[in-house]
Structures are given as C-alpha cells and as structure tokens.
Amino acid sequence: MIQSSIERVARTRYVMPIIVALAVITIAITESAYQHSRSTLTQGVVLSDARLEAARTLQTLTDAENAARAYIASGRQDDLANYREAISETQSVRKGVAQLLDVLDPYRTLSLSNVNQRIDTHIATLEEWVRAAEQGRSAQAQTMANGNQSRERYATMRQEFETVLARTAQAQRTTRVSLFDAMLINRVALHGLVVLAVLVLALFMRKLRDGDRRESEEHGRLSAQVALRTTALRNLAGHHVHAREDERGRVARELHDELGGLFTAMKLEIARLRRVADVPDTALQRLSGIEQRLNEGIAVKRRIIENLRPSSLDQLGLISALDMLCQEAAAGLGIAVHTEFTPVDLDKDAELTIYRLVQESLTNVSKYAKAKEVRVELAQTGPWVRVSVHDNGLGFDTDAVQAGHHGLLGMRVRVESHSGKLEIISAPGMGTRVEAELPAQAPEVAGSAERNG
Ligand SMILES: Nc1ncnc2c1ncn2[C@@H]1O[C@H](COP(=O)(O)OP(=O)(O)O)[C@@H](O)[C@H]1O
Ligand SMILES: [Mg+2]
Fold first, then answer.
1. Over 70: is that where the pLDDT of 252 sits?
2. Is the pLDDT of residue 452 over 50?
3. Spacing of C-alpha 212 from chain mean position
4. What's the rounded mean pLDDT across residues 103-126?
5. Is 325 found in the same domain as 200?
6. How far, in Å, is the centroid of ligand 2 from the Cα of 338?
7. Average pLDDT over the chain, rounded to whole?
8. Spacing, Cα 368 to ligand 1 middle (Å)
9. Ligand nearest to the CA of 369
10. CATH number, position 413
11. At which of 165, 187, 211 does a domain end?
12. Where does ligand 1 bind, in terms of residues with CB under 6 Å?
C-alpha cells in the first residue's frame, strides 16, 4: 500500500524538485547548526578567558596593594617599583578583560562601567597611600592602609566582576539551549533524509531488478518463439522441396507411361502402315517424315523426363549418376572436373538430395565461378556421408547473397531435412567449397512420413 503510493509519487514530475528542496533544507539546517555551535563554542572559550583575565586583574590589584603596604612600612624603593609594576600590569590586564567582554556582548547590554569605576577608585586610593608615604607622611599612610574600607572595596569589586561574568554565562546558557534545539532538528532532518534516500534507492533497485527480470523473461519467450518458428519454417521448406520432387517424379512417370505408350503405339502403327501393300511412294515418304518427327518427340519427352527426375539415379545408382553429371559439366564448361567417389549407404531421398546438391553447385560454377578446375568428392566416414564440390574460381561473400537467390538456400533446406549439415566456404578470390554431411542410411519411414505430412 505504502509502497504503491510511494511509487505513484515517484512517477510524478514533482519528485525531482521535492528531492532538491529537501536536500537544500537539510543543507541549510546543517549549516546553521554548524555556525551556531561554532559561535557558541567560541563564546564559551572567550568566557573562560574573560574569567581568567578578571581573576588576574584582581590578582594584580592585590599585588599592587601588598606592594603599597610594603612600601608604606619599609619606605624602600624596590617595594615602590613593585607597586608601579603591579599597577601598570593591572591597567593592561583590565583592558584585555574589557575587550573579551566586548566580544561576548558587543551591544553592551552588560555594563562594565561599575567594575571599571571600582577599579579606578581602588587604584586612586592606593595612589593616595603611596603619595602620602612618598611625601614622608608615613603615619597618615599607615592609618589609611589599616582602615576597613580597603577590604570592603576589594570585596565589592570582586562581586561586580562576578555579576558581569554571571550575566554573560546566563546569556550563554540561553544560546546553548538553542544550540541543542538546532542540533536536534539537524539530527532529525539528517535521519529523515537518510531514511528517504535508502527508501528511494531500494525502490530504484527493485525497479531495476523487475526491469531486468521482465526483459530476460521477454527475451526467453522471444527466443523460444523464434526457435519454434524457425523449426516450423524449416519443416515447411523441407516439405515443399520433397513435395516438389514427388510432383516432378509423378509427372515424369506419367509422361513416360502415358506419352511413352502413345508414342510406341504410333510407331507400331507406322510400321504396320509400311507393311500394307501398294502404298504410294509419296505416302511412304510422308510416313518417314512423320516417324522422324515422332522420334524427335520421343527425344524431347526423354529430355523433359530426365530434367524432371534423373533416371540415371534410379537406373544406374548415385555414383554413376554423379559421374555422368560431372562429365556433362566438364564437357559443357571445357574445364577439368575431378571426381573421387566411394560407395555410400543412403536411402533414395538422401541420394536425390546429394545429386541435386552437386547439380546446383556445378550450375553455379558454370554461371559465376569462372573456375579452371572443380573437384567433386563423395565418401562415407562412419555414420556420416560427406559430399563436397570445390572450385578454384572467383568465390563470393557468403554473407552478402542478395534476396531472390534460392539455389544455396534450397540446398540447405534439403540437407537439413535429412538432419544433415551444409557448409558454404567462400570469399572473393578464394574459390568456393560447398560441403554437406548427411547421416548414412536415413530411415526411409521418417523421410516419407515427413513428405506426406
Ligand atoms: N561457385 C560459385 N562461385 C562464385 N559465386 C557463387 C558460386 N556459387 C554461388 N555464388 C554466388 O552466390 C549467389 C547465390 O547463389 P544461388 O543461391 O545458387 O542463387 P542463384 O544461382 O539463383 O544466383 C550467386 O548469385 C553468386 O553470386
Ligand atoms: Mg544457383
């Protein structure tokens, strides 16, 4: 449910701007938290520095007072020098305190003036003591220094310092609280963004995986379909080839039986006419003419029958039929056709396939190869019968055969319909080798079953 609604959102065009806005907000929060904590930490450091400096100011004032008392008591110059040194150190240290407190509170909501006033008064009092001692009024100086007033002044001054620092610390605590708030928001925002990123990534990965799975399923389905269709087409093509051969055989037989019978009857009739008494010479001459035409008709019929179905194959066997084919080609082309045939074990259909393969190859040699030599071989090795026609002619690019040329394709269909393999090896200038392997003694039943199916 949640996933589907997320997916729905993910598909809208607002998703990218939303992601960018979230990223910008997160960066802004992180940045402000960083700046905030930085300034708070800096302020913390400054505050503790200010405390130290304040303590030092008080310390130097105490030193100055002690030195002043010593001078009053002893009248020695080195005590006076100590006093002057402590006073000048006080002046420089209090400047530092003022600067630090100014950094902490540039708007001067915290008043330092009280403290400064106290320090000034304290220093003025000390000056008064020392001046009295310098002018030889030691007794007066002693009296002033022993009074309770100076201790009280010191305590008040310390108190003023504490107040200023406490106020600053208070201001800091408020900032620290807001710092924790900022850090909390920052933390929540970061966690949210990380969770969102993981969610988006998971969704994306899932989509990728789904896509891959669908693609591979589709690929498998298409491959199976292609394989199925290819097999169907191959079977259909094989069926057509055999059906065509059957039809040719039937026509050849019919021509032989019917037309042959007619021709024979006509020849007998002519012979009988010749034997009839007192046939005029002109009629005999006409009869001879008719007989000659009849013989021509018989020759035409033979040629047609031979073209339709090589009778040599049925009458003389494969090797002799191939021999005749090769001799005819050699005579027709005027080139050497070398043959090397050894007996093979094949059924009639496979023999016809080999015969047609050699026939088509030799036709191609005569049409395209411009070869000087052709070698035709037939042999059986184990369960395979191999036939090859090799010429040393022009050759061709086997991948670039144009559409509409069906000789080589027909060969392949025939060979594959016997579960055989056909290879055509050729390249421009390299001659051509047509080579087929057929299983020996292909079962007769399967062949005729395919044809009838
Ligand atoms: N022995 C060969 N030598 C050179 N080219 C050939 C040879 N056999 C075939 N070819 C080339 O292959 C093409 C296809 O041959 P094929 O399938 O028998 O069709 P077709 O004979 O109708 O042209 C031919 O057009 C020719 O270019
Ligand atoms: Mg051809």
1. yes
2. no
3. 11
4. 77
5. no
6. 21
7. 87
8. 6
9. 1
10. 3.30.565.10
11. 211
12. 364-365, 368-369, 391, 393-396, 401, 405-409, 432
**Local confidence band at 451 (pLDDT 50, 70, 90 cut-offs):** very low
User: Does pTM top 0.85 for this prediction?
Assistant: no
Counting every residue, how long is the chain? 453
Looking at 196, 211, 226, which one is the last position of a domain? 211
- Give the domain range for residue 204: 2-211
- Domain total in the chain: 2
